[in-house]
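Field guide to reading this record: the first block holds the primary sequence, the second block holds the structure written as discrete tokens, and the final block holds curator observations. Each block starts with its own label. This record concerns 4-hydroxy-tetrahydrodipicolinate reductase, catalogued under organism Iodobacter fluviatilis.

BLOCK 1 — SEQUENCE
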Amino acid sequence: MTIKIAIAGSSGRMGRMLIEAVIAAKDCQLFAAFDRENSPAIGSDAAAFLGKNCGVNISANLNLLAGADVLIDFTRPEGTLQHLSACQKHDVNMIIGTTGFEETGKATITAAADKIAIVHAYNMSAGVNLLVKLLEVAAKTLNTGYDIEILEMHHRMKVDAPSGTALMLGDAVAGAMGQKLEDCAVYDRHGITGERDPSSIGFATLRGGDVIGDHTVIFAGMGERIEISHKASNRNIYAQGSIRAARFLSGQQTGLFDMQDVLGLS
Ligand SMILES: NC(=O)C1=CN([C@@H]2O[C@H](COP(=O)(O)OP(=O)(O)OC[C@H]3O[C@@H](n4cnc5c(N)ncnc54)[C@H](OP(=O)(O)O)[C@@H]3O)[C@@H](O)[C@H]2O)C=CC1
Ligand SMILES: O=C(O)C1=N[C@H](C(=O)O)C[C@H](O)C1
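BLOCK 2 — STRUCTURE
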């Protein structure tokens, strides 16, 4: 069976990576490609940046979703929520990689999963999702006497902080220790902060250059330090994860899933 895939944010870093990966995947067909109305790419072939013609022109008309199996969206929260409405209208499943949602946006996605099937994950790579499992073991084993800090670095163009992945890793660690991340997260330190609260999970955000995505969770004890890291060196890991998610969604009618479900890790 061929999976008919539409891509949102076609001219973005992830949009282009996804177009290349979908065209290369034997069981996938690039069905539609979207950008914003004011994008200079509107009307051009979606594979033009590869020096190829794939026969799908970039459009802002979301009615072209009709007949697609799934829309893959790596844009911005406000764009994703517009695309989500269009997916419900046309009964198209959705894969959401966008980060930076407020609680209301997350609730809208959860509600939409009563009508269509959605994979929503802040990191589509197999490696990061394995890290989540490793962290659950680490957090349960090192649950007293170790200070937990999460460090992430991304390229200078990234607009949200901390990264969605850092928040997901923090959530996994907090959950494994019977805590809620919102009750123990420390996102800023400046000035006379006082001693570290042993029950806190600290976050540090670095931005610079073209770093694709580095994440390290540190368990700092007295006499030893454990660091569990993932470093991305190519965005194709996210595109391949998205294609796995598209295969997973084939045949699903409704429901909200994450990459742990897709990879059989849940
Ligand atoms: N889950 C995962 O595995 C990963 C998630 N991400 C996340 O994906 C998102 C995109 O990342 P990246 O590709 O680097 O970003 P880019 O800025 O390179 O691309 C974003 C694309 O979305 C478009 N866009 C922005 N706002 C809207 C809108 N309101 N409506 C429709 N389209 C819109 C942009 O168009 P324009 O240029 O016209 O603004 C652009 O084409 C981020 O949230 C990032 O954190 C990234 C990598 C992996
Ligand atoms: O913006 C990015 O580039 C990335 N965003 C995601 C995040 O916020 O975690 C995933 C990956 O780290 C790359």
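BLOCK 3 — OBSERVATIONS
Residues 99, 122-123, 154, 158, 163-165, 213 surround LZUJQKHR (ligand 2) (CB under 6 Å).
The chain has eight helices and twelve strands.
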